[in-house]
Amino acid sequence: MSPGRGRYVVEVTILPRSAPVSARSGASEPTGDYSTWSAVSIGLLAAGLAGALMLIAADFATLVQIKVITVTKESLAGHDQHSWAIAIVGVAALPLAFGAARGRSRPAMVGLIVLGAVVLFIALAKDLPDTRSEGVIGVRYESAHASPGAGFYLETGGAVLLLLAGVGGLVLQPAKRATSSASRDG
After folding, report:
1. 13 within domain boundaries
2. Rounded to an integer, what distance in angstroms lies between the CA atom of residue 33 and that of residue 128?
3. Per DSSP, what are the bridge partners of residue 62?
4. What is the pTM of this model?
5. Are 92 and 167 in contact (CB under 8 A)?
6. How far apart are CA 39 and CA 115, in angstroms?
7. Residue 4: CB partners within 8 Å, gap ≥ 6?
8. Does some domain include residue 43?
9. What's the number of domains the chain is made of?
10. Residue 77 — φ and ψ, nearest 5°?
11. What is the pLDDT at residue 186?
């Protein structure tokens, strides 16, 4: 080496830090570690995903069936009743469930509550009366009986699970700490 030139030494360690952190651009301190799953977030994710999948399955299942003695005269699937709306709500709930559980996103939790409430309203206000009405078949056959099918139970169960995942996230998971400009300047 020529005189006057220095040597640079870079030290690299492979030992893990005591607590992994992630940094955000412009933040004065590291943000929380989201690389690990807590038991609460796993439970909320399971409830949200199960609720969303139940809603999707509800549109493929029988919502209402009308029997005369032992013969099923008419059955109505969920997609016949809702034009695939419940399945679309279920698909929309999938990323919300992940965001609510993984990223502790308050808007995603509120979104799960809203979607669950909308589906529960549809199930109770529109579908429940249909499960008790025989319609024209009841006029023709005195022994006709309407009953809810598996789709009705999937629909209401999925809505309740979405509500539980959203409310549970708001109540059980702490909110992300927002770094305000005053704390960065201070």
Report:
1. no
2. 45
3. 77
4. 0.74
5. no
6. 24
7. none
8. no
9. 1
10. -80, 160
11. 47
Residue listed under structure tokens 């009405």: 133
Residue corresponding to tokens 């069936």: 65
Question: Would you state the structure tokens that stand for residue 75, as one six-digit string?
Answer: 């059955």
Distance CA 38, CA 170 (A): 15
Q: Which two tokens stand for residue 73?
A: 């005269």
Per-position DSSP letters for 127-143, written without gaps between them: IHHHTT--THHHHH-TT
| Phi, psi (degrees; rounded to nearest 5) at 74 | -150, 140
Residues of the chain with pLDDT under 50: 182-183, 186
Collect all residues with Cβ–Cβ distance below 8 Å to 85 and sequence separation of at least 6.
122
Q: State the DSSP H helix or E strand holding residue 155, giving kind and residue range, or none if neither.
A: helix 150-172
CA distance 142 to 130: 18
| pLDDT score of 122 | 95
Amino acid in the structure at residue 152: F
117 membership: H or E segment, kind and range: helix 106-122
Which domain range does residue 134 map to? Answer: 55-171
Ordered alpha helix ranges (H), 15-105: 39-58, 78-82, 85-102
Look at residue 12 and tell me if it is in a domain. no
Euclidean distance between CA atoms 119 and 89, whole angstroms:
8
In a domain, 122, yes or no: yes
